[in-house]
Amino acid sequence: MKIQHFYDTRTGTISYVVADDESKIAIVIDPVMDYDSKAGRVFFESAEEMAAWIDAGGYRVPYALDTHPHADHMTAMPFFKERYGSKTVIGRGFVQVQKNFADLFDLGPEFPRDGSQYDILLDDDEVLEVGPFDVRAISTPGHTPASMSFVIGDAVFVGDLLFQPDSGTARCDFPGGSSAEIYDSIQRIYALPSATRVFTLHDYQPGGRPLAFESTVDEQRRSNVHLREGVSKEAFVKLRNTLEAGKPAPNLILPALQVNLRGGHLPEPASNGIRYLKIPLNQFGGA
Question: What is residue 133's three-state secondary structure?
């Protein structure tokens, strides 16, 4: 099993391709659709970089996976569906996130809130068979109700559940988020074999250290600055709630959610043929 990372400097997102050289099958995880907020322009430079690597290896991509509906970048699911015929996959909790935000963005009663924007909605402990890979879905809510970690071989892709041990754990203050739930979710990851490799979605490079995106379950258990072994649920919830207080919203949360609630598709054009994103005023906290 080969794991290739792709770092998007604009959003600090780390996407992955998991590939098998014998079968020539690959899986894409958390791909990014680029967005220029000043120009209101979307483009696919990040996805094209991933595609170039895939094409150079001669891989097929039957599935593209999102760990959750992202608040800091737009998903590139449609790019991989169109280019490779990939089936798009997310956790079933995506439906709850749609319900949490559809009214905020005034998406209207005709907007499907059943998760049908993705091809497959995975349930907890469901296994997706992809050629030589068995992808096991572990429901890990707390950051969002839809957060899902994916175990593939000796690796687990945790999305925004955990960061590197020196950066701790993800925020839990979005609608439907819960510091108590994320504590329980992390315990499920910590219950995996100690040598399991943990791949994270973001790295904020504390102290200016080099980019890092891989650790192990054992390293996380021993040294995660927010949740090491022995930290009680009560202490963790208190810490996370303190960290969340007054925290500004992610830079791209408003455009990203509107696109990601649609599975990466842009809003339908208005009568003048132009597509628009809505900005709900005074609905999120900020610094």
Answer: strand
- How many whole angstroms separate alpha carbon 284 and alpha carbon 81? 32
Distance, in Å, from the CA atom of 46 to the CA atom of 26, rounded to the nearest integer, reads 17
Domain spanning 2-260: CATH superfamily: Ribonuclease Z/Hydroxyacylglutathione hydrolase-like (3.60.15.10)
| Distance, CA of 44 to CA of 202 (rounded, Å) | 19
Environment class of residue 149 by beta-carbon count within 10 Å: exposed (0-12), middle (13-18) or buried (19+)?
buried
pLDDT digits (tens, 9 = 90+) for 49-85: 999 999 999 999 999 999 999 999 999 999 999 999 9
Instruction: Determine the Cα–Cα distance for residues 172 and 183; give it in Å rounded to an integer.
Output: 10
Q: How far apart are CA 265 and CA 116, in angstroms?
A: 12
Boundaries of every domain in the chain: 2-260
* Helix 45-57 vs helix 77-84: crossing angle, to nearest 10: 40
- Residue 99 burial (C-beta neighbours within 10 Å; 0-12, 13-18, 19+): middle
CA distances from 200 to 44, 61, 131, 170 (A): 22, 21, 24, 11
Task: At 187, list the tokens.
Answer: 């315990």
Residue range 107-156, pLDDT digits in tens: 999 999 999 999 999 999 999 999 999 999 999 999 999 999 999 999 99
Six-digit token string for 244: 């969340």
Using alpha carbons, select from 205, 222, 141 the residue that is nearest to residue 167: 205
CB 267, CB 274: distance < 8 Å: no
φ/ψ of 134, rounded to 5, equals -110, 115
CA 136/CA 148 separation, integer angstroms:
10
Buried b (16+ CB within 10 A) or exposed e, 203-219: beeeeeeeebbebbbbe
Query: Please, where are the H alpha helices in the chain?
Result: 45-57, 77-84, 94-101, 179-190, 217-223, 233-244, 253-260
